[in-house]
């Protein structure tokens, strides 16, 4: 029998899979305890011990994510044969994706049933300045592509004081292979708006949908008696009273995560084909995982008490795995915070004509000079590049009846779905109601 003795050439993906698998295997064998000893000071070693897989002293995770694959919905017309809609997609879905799903509230037996039940964009994560925060990531594997043994990671993009062990870059930290879990540890010091994504095969995994928003609320929310600042909602520790032009106080907040879908690449992902990324040309431009007019549909995100599966928004069964609305609603006089994040690969410019947008922060940084000078500014058009975030506040004007404004991508090519007729893409509405109409907001995007 003939044999081929030539050595196999390892691709970058092969190398990263091997590195991720070996790292977690080492953790399971206790070898990373020695690595932890090298990562002085003692506080770092203690954090490493707390995150070992299966360690009895591990603190419970604040958030538990799974990374899996599945199907979501994009408008099937116009069709882009053979890429879109994908003929393998089960009705009413059209498009193959990867995603990160929050399963924190589910029982272990329910979590085991969520493989293949994906979500885009992932649920926002928020925590408080000064908090020790843990995100557990479980990789149950893929259903549509069980041949893929990709690891997953959580990379908190822009986090300033992370050590490599928990950074989520597979070259320096832990990659979580199929069938394993890992808990990332963070000590939160800098308030502001960030994003998270899988950093394994990051071009592919980010574009396929493994993205989410994350933000840290400032200590000033508890008030600052020394400065006379009352407890409330603030974007940053601004050190000024509400009503001051430099204040970052707000009443309602909405997260808008901008991403893109290239139908050809998503079809390739489902049909075991390679992608030439130099041909990148997205067909759909999304807000929180949806395109207009579905950006206006209500929130989903509730789970079936028996199966743990996501429940579709009322009247929109096709949006079962795209649960986050982008509709912005407020009462007259409300100060409204928009946390805008771009995790696509294109420069975007979002415009809101008719309302004054006060840009108070960028990339989780208060726009204030080292000498205390105010660097914030006012506009109605916000350019935002890949990997950037912007915090902006507007005051809802006085109205006697419901008044609507359009918030949209100023590039009209990004306001159609796959080049079809009519509006689509990255557009939503701001709806202002007379004072007292809406109850107080209890969580973002409601």
Verbal overview:
This protein has helices at 12-28, 32-38, 42-50, 108-111, 202-208, 263-270, and strands spanning 63-72, 95-102, 122-128, 132-139, 155-157, 180-187, 192-197, 211-217, 252-261, 284-287, 328-331, 335-342, 348-351, 357-362, 377-379, 381-384, 389-395, 403-409, 427-433. It is an alpha+beta fold. A six-stranded mixed β-sheet has the order 10-9-12-17-14-15. It has one domain (15-52, 59-217, 250-433): Cupredoxins -  blue copper proteins (Immunoglobulin-like, Sandwich), CATH 2.60.40. The radius of gyration is 22 Å and the shape is globular.
Task: List the defining traits of the structure above.
single chain, 446 residues, alpha+beta, Immunoglobulin-like, six-stranded mixed beta sheet, 27% strand
Distance between the termini: 67 Å
**What is the ordering of alpha helices and beta strands?**
HHHEEHEEEEEHEEHEEEEEEEEEE
Low-confidence stretches: 1-57
Inertia-based shape: globular
The total count of helices amounts to: 6
Query: Compute the gyration radius: what is it?
Result: 22 Å
